[in-house]
Amino acid sequence: MVETAFLEGLYRRYNRRCHAERDPVGLLHAFDDVRERETAALIVACLAYGRVEQIMRSAREALHRLGGEPRRFITSVTPQELRRACAGFVHRVVNGERLWRLTWCIKDMLERHGSLEACFAKHDDDAQATVLPGLRGLAAELRQKDYAPRHLIAEPSKGSACKRWNLFLRWMVRSDRVDPGGWSCAGPARLIVPLDAHMWRICRPLGLTERRSCNLAAALEVTAAFRRMCPQDPVRYDFALMHASAAGELRQVPEPDGGGSG
Predict the structure, then answer these.
(1) Are 45 and 94 in contact (CB under 8 A)?
(2) Is the pTM of this model over 0.70?
(3) Does a structural domain hold residue 120?
(4) How do residues 72-98 score in pLDDT, each as one tens digit?
(5) How many domains are there within the chain?
């Protein structure tokens, strides 16, 4: 098992605002209003697959199309105006139609609950070890419409690692030099590591998981390992590990066979 001192060293070096500016989370620091930030965070998180540079370009474009204030824009325009704003958008398999469907689902949730945080809190159970109850409820409410782009909204009950959901929650629940936070309905101690195939390849040689597939069970196993090191903040090292790997500090980490991401 990797030593806490090693991870703390990576945290001190990489958990900095200068590194955040080269990561999708950096886009969220522009939003002082927590309600604007949570809306922007969900849109950015849903687009968080592919190369980082491509994600950031696409996320910036999506937020620009929504007037730079996604919550205000989404809640104030007609379906036709929102559809026109999204027309022509492309991020890998996400086109303007799918972006419109996502934003219209967000609009519906905001109208029913007032905020994404309120919807999450309605379903969450702080007596549980992780945020899975709130995550499941938030996902279910976004997916319930016939027009929901379900491939963008992972369903935790099906065993997906739900990397993008857990990334969204990390951004909104934690607050430090990288994660802007803003939510008070859940604490960092219950967060789950945003596990994708790359993070899984990092974690296996470090002794953080023995799972041979990148799924929810693996994400929970990695989280449990981190929780033993840092009970109050088990996702503390997520950002630093990813950026240390990108910088070549973990080049000796072998890549196991198989796996996937969710």
Answers:
(1) no
(2) yes
(3) yes
(4) 999 999 999 999 999 999 999 999 999
(5) 1
